Amino acid sequence: MEVEVFALLKDYFDKKFIVPARLSDIESLKQHLLDLNPAAEQVLSSCRFAVEDEFVDHNYQLKENDYICIIPPSSGG
Amino acid sequence: MEVEVFALLKDYFDKKFIVPARLSDIESLKQHLLDLNPAAEQVLSSCRFAVEDEFVDHNYQLKENDYICIIPPSSGG
Amino acid sequence: MTTSVSSLPAVEVSTYISDQPLDLVGLLAGAHHPLAGAVVLFSGDVRDNNLGKQVAYLEYEARATMAAKMIAEILDEAKRKWNLNIAVAQHRVGKVAVGESAVVVITATPHRREAYEANRYIIDRIKHEVPIWKCEFFTDGTKKWGGNCNCHELTGDPHKHIYEVEKETNQ
Amino acid sequence: MTTSVSSLPAVEVSTYISDQPLDLVGLLAGAHHPLAGAVVLFSGDVRDNNLGKQVAYLEYEARATMAAKMIAEILDEAKRKWNLNIAVAQHRVGKVAVGESAVVVITATPHRREAYEANRYIIDRIKHEVPIWKCEFFTDGTKKWGGNCNCHELTGDPHKHIYEVEKETNQ
């Protein structure tokens, strides 16, 4: 499973990185991210998760080749 | 005093014409126009009058060299 | 022909009333302002049909000197009311082909809400108040002068235009 | 990179997301429609200041594939809701200079009220929902990522954007 982060999340994580296949759902992925960088807690709390370009909720079951985007609040325009 | 008419008023009057100096106010001018063409009554009732490019009301006192525009309801855009 | 006894400031008529095709592109290019993050452009285009009949072309007549002064005044009022950085409006006169623009309004301001509101306010007032008249020429050879607005049917008040009522409701 | 398992239709990303200067003039020229009497264009320009500091330039990042699909979906929804003849939107990514347009929305419809309303609906949703992020680079060398919208401060509801409340009030 690969993760890509955007915008200010790049100050906390690499732009793209591999996460362990044992992570079962978005909730456990989120915990994994906080273990990597506890300082990201507040920023992460306002983010949404997307798999294959669709938003998913916190109990989405991760699959082996999922490409996960972590989406901060939009600020386009 | 000269009068200029616009839009559908041109179906009732010449585009521009001279009116007698004896007409004292807009009300008497309006009566003069109805004498010229009684069929214009309904159309004229929705028009406003402007002298020197400023709207005037019905008791405006006409002066010798006034240039009077008769303004039907707007339909620009 | 008319002497200038008007209380309104003197204006360049061609800035507001034009017998040439409106240069939307040029006007838009000139309407970007370093302080204004929101630019709204409205173009009133000639449609190819009205009242179920095919439109061949339109012809607009104006009392140009008066119309120009009134448009200038409307723009000034909108600029003050919404703190606009830019407010531009130009209306075509003469023959206008289907698909061409008959009127353009551009507003620019730091925030978009004001740019939209002011833009709509300006076009509504131009359409309802400024001495400009539309004559539609149909492909069947008939023509029709644009009549009174039918606002009174919608507002229930012969002296109230629809945008005056909308404004009251929105605020 | 991403396989196409999305429920949204496939779209050409470059139609909605562009790393080149937005061609407002070309998009506007293409947005005249014989049935549509009202064309509204919105351009979101980069301002030269924010938070009291001088802006050097902006940089926009997007999850482009996702953003393009979402913009296409928003346009489709607006087209159906307001019966638009034309609905176009394009957002810039990468470095954008002061005065340049970062986003453009064009709507065309027979009557102007719908053109304005739909246009504003589209830009509001793009700004609030589509995965595009602004980073401001100031002349003093600092930078700032665009944060959450502050709608909740205005609406009093953490899940309500300002345009949702305005819509309810107006209707």
Descriptive report:
The complex is a heterotetramer, with two copies of chain A (77 residues) and two copies of chain C (171 residues). Chain A is α+β, with helices and mostly antiparallel strands and 77 residues long. Chain A has a single domain, classed as Beta-grasp domain (Ubiquitin-like (UB roll), Roll). Helices cover 21% and strands 25% of the residues of chain A. Chain A has two helices and five strands. In chain A, a hairpin with a 2-residue loop joins strand 3 and strand 4. Chain C is of the alpha+beta class. Chain C has a single domain, classed as Aldehyde Oxidoreductase, domain 3 (Alpha-Beta Complex), CATH 3.90.1170.40. In chain C, strand 8 and strand 9 form a beta hairpin. Chain C is globular, with a radius of gyration of 17 Å. Chain C starts with 12 loop residues before the first helix and ends with a helix.
* Number of helices, where a helix is a run of at least 4 consecutive DSSP H or I residues of chain C: 6
Number-wise, the strands of chain A total 5
The biggest beta sheet of chain C reads: 5 strands, antiparallel
CATH-level-4 superfamily name of chain A: Beta-grasp domain
Low-confidence stretches of chain A: none
CATH fold call of chain C? Aldehyde Oxidoreductase, domain 3
Largest interface: chains, residues each:
C-D, 35 and 35 residues
Number of helices of chain A: 2
Mean pLDDT of chain C: 86
SS content category of chain A: alpha+beta
Morphology of chain C: globular
Low-confidence stretches of chain C: 1-5, 167-171
* Percent helix of chain C: 25-40%
Instruction: Give the CATH superfamily of chain C.
Output: Molybdopterin biosynthesis MoaE subunit
- Count of individual domains of chain C: 1
CATH fold descriptor of chain A: Ubiquitin-like (UB roll)
Query: How many E-type strands of chain C?
Result: 9
Strand order of the largest sheet of chain A: 2-1-5-3-4
- Determine the structural class of chain C based on helices, strands and strand pairing: alpha+beta
